[in-house]
Each structure stands twice: as structure tokens, then as C-alpha cells.
Amino acid sequence: MSAPANPDSTDLDRLHAAVKREKEDLAPESQPAPLWAIFLLMLVAIVAGGQIGQMTGGWSFDVSNPFSVAGTGGDPRPGGGAAGDALDPFALAMKKGASGYSVCGGCHQGNGAGIPGQFPPLAGSEWVNGGTERLIRVVQHGLTGPITVKGAGFNTPGGMMPFGAAMSSQDLANVLTFVRNSWGNEGTMVTKEMVQKVRDEEKRATQWTAADLEPFAEKNVPGDIPAGPGATAAAAPAPAAK
Ligand code: HEC
Questions:
Q1: Ligand 1: which residues within 6 Å by Cβ?
Q2: What pLDDT, on a 0 to 100 scale, did the predictor assign at position 232?
Q3: Burial of 126 by CB count in 10 Å (0-12 exposed, 13-18 middle, 19+ buried)?
Q4: Of the residues 104, 118, 156, which should be mutated to test ligand 1's pocket, given the most ligand atoms within 8 Å of the CB?
Q5: What CATH number did the domain enclosing 122 receive?
Q6: How far is the CA of 62 from the centre of ligand 1 (A)?
Q7: Which of 72, 108, 171 has the most ligand 1 atoms within 8 A of CB, as the residue to mutate?
Q8: pLDDT above 80 (res 233)
Q9: How many domains does the chain have?
Q10: Residue 78 domain-assigned?
């Protein structure tokens, strides 16, 4: 049975032709993007990425977290990174030392004033502002028995445990730099090399007494750096393996 000739065949042909034309129109758009456009986009991404990296601190995740202690073992960013450049060594040590001080603050208090009759003050203390040989030893090995700080006597049972012993040399150096430059104290920076030197020299399992440490009271470990913005990377000793 043959179908009758379609009376609309001419219309159908015209419709077909229209669809075909549409397809042809679409064709140029589905061509791959020209290479120059791809390269341009890549260039924009690289330049913009660099800019963002610089403004946020080398894409680091902890730059805006003041409590972060990540990276206190040194700035892990290659070449120091943009944020490392923004903070000079002194400012960086103070920032990290402030968070490390949370270990000490429960006793010596956030304002460094201590608690009369119980925990001696670090603010204005001759133990903090005096020789770094003595200061590092106190925190590395602990201290017990009667001591005098700013004319006041302390003899808290048990004394002070060696709270610094568990810290890395860099962390301890930061905390000591912080206490020597806070609450009116103005001292030099303590470096991790200084802490390491005392650690190497002094193998000791028991707490010190004030009398033991008297010979170190005014002695400084060599290698300290003047504090303040003048403490440039150039003044700092070359980074050495811990
Ligand atoms: C659990 C309480 C406690 C903590 C935590 C503590 N200390 Fe002490 N600290 C003491 C006591 C008590 C003495 C006095 C010891 C004595 O009487 O022989 C002392 C003495 C000192 C001294 C010598 C005296 C003075 O006031 O200058 C320094 C320096 C010091 N501590 C620094 C630190 C640092 C730095 C930290 C943190 C890493 C710390 N302490 C953590 C209780 C503490």
C-alpha cells in the first residue's frame, strides 16, 4: 500500500533546510578555543595566584591564626615566604613566644606579675633580665628551694618543674625572647642556637637551686641578638640544623 504523496512535502523540505542551517551556524562555536586564549587565561591565573599568595602570606593556612604554633620550628616556606619577610625575626619570635607562653602563664600570669608568695614575677625579674646562661637553665631543668626575686622571697613547695625541656630549642628561644621583651622587660633575643648550646653543655636530671645557679647569674650565652625591628635576618646567625 503506497502512502499518498504528502501535500506538505515542500514545507517539510523547507523546515529541514532551516534545521540544517541552524546546525551550520552552531558549528563554529564548538571549535576548540584558540591556543592563545588558553595561554592568556593561564597567565592571568599565575599572576593573580602570585598576587593572592603575596597578600595572604604564601598561601599559608596559619597566617591569620595568632594561636598557631605550627611552624615554630622555623619558617618552612621556601625562601621565608612573603609573610616571613613581612615579620622581622624579632616580631616573629615575639608572636610565637606569646603563644608558647601559655605554658608559663598559668603560674606567672598573663601580665608576668606572678602571684605574691606563690609564683615569682617575670616582669622586672633579675632572673629574666639577667644572664641568659641562668635563665635558660632555670626553664630547661627547673628550680627549687628558696629564691629572691625583686627583693621578695619565694619557696613554693616543689619549686618549678623543667617546663622548657619538652619544647624544641626554637620554641623555647621564642618564649624566652618573649618574656625578656614583655611587661617592661627589655632584653636581647634568645636564639635556638643559644638554647641548644646550654642543652649540649648541661645534662642534668634534677632541678637547680638558687645557689647552684649563682655563678651563671650574670653570664650570657654568646650569640644573642639585639631585640627590636633592627633584628634583621642579616643579624641573625645562619639557620643551623637543630
Ligand atoms: C606550675 C607553675 C609554674 C609554671 C607553669 C612555670 N613556672 Fe616558672 N616558676 C615557678 C615557681 C614556683 C618558681 C620559683 C621556684 C623556686 O622557688 O625555687 C618559678 C621560677 C621561675 C623563674 C625564676 C624566678 C623569676 O620569677 O624570674 C623563671 C625565669 C621562670 N620561672 C620562668 C618560667 C617560664 C619561662 C615558664 C614557661 C616555660 C615557667 N616559668 C613556667 C612556677 C612555674
A1: 103-104, 106-108, 119-122, 125, 127-128, 135, 138-139, 143-145, 147, 149, 154-156, 159-160, 163-164, 175, 179
A2: 52
A3: middle
A4: 104
A5: 1.10.760.10
A6: 30
A7: 108
A8: no
A9: 1
A10: no
CA of 119 to the centre of ligand 1 (A): 7
Read off the pLDDT of each residue in 22-34 and give the average, rounded to a whole number: 67
pLDDT at 64 over 70: no
Residue 134 lies in a domain: yes
Q: Is residue 231 part of a domain?
A: no
Mutate to test the pocket of ligand 1, among 129, 160, 179, 212 (most ligand atoms within 8 A of CB): 160
Contact predicate 138/214, CB 8 Å: no
Tens digit of each residue's pLDDT (9 = 90 or more) over 139-189: 999 999 999 999 999 999 999 999 999 999 999 999 999 999 999 999 999
Least confident of 37-51, 55-69, 203-217: 55-69
Residue owning the nearest CA to atom 6 of ligand 1: 104
**H/E segment holding residue 154:** strand 152-154
Between 53 and 202, where is the model more confident? 202
Residue that wins the pLDDT comparison between 15 and 237: 15
Q: Which of 98, 233, 242 is nearest to 179 (CA)?
A: 98
**Structural domain for 100, as ranges:** 89-216
Atom of ligand 1 nearest to the CA of 135: 29
Residue 37 CA to residue 202 CA, distance in Å, equals: 65
Can you say whether the dihedral through the CA atoms of 93, 94, 100, 105 is positive or negative?
positive
Which residues face 147 on adjacent strands? Answer: 154
Whether residue 119 has pLDDT greater than 70: yes
In this structure, is residue 235 part of a structural domain? Answer: no
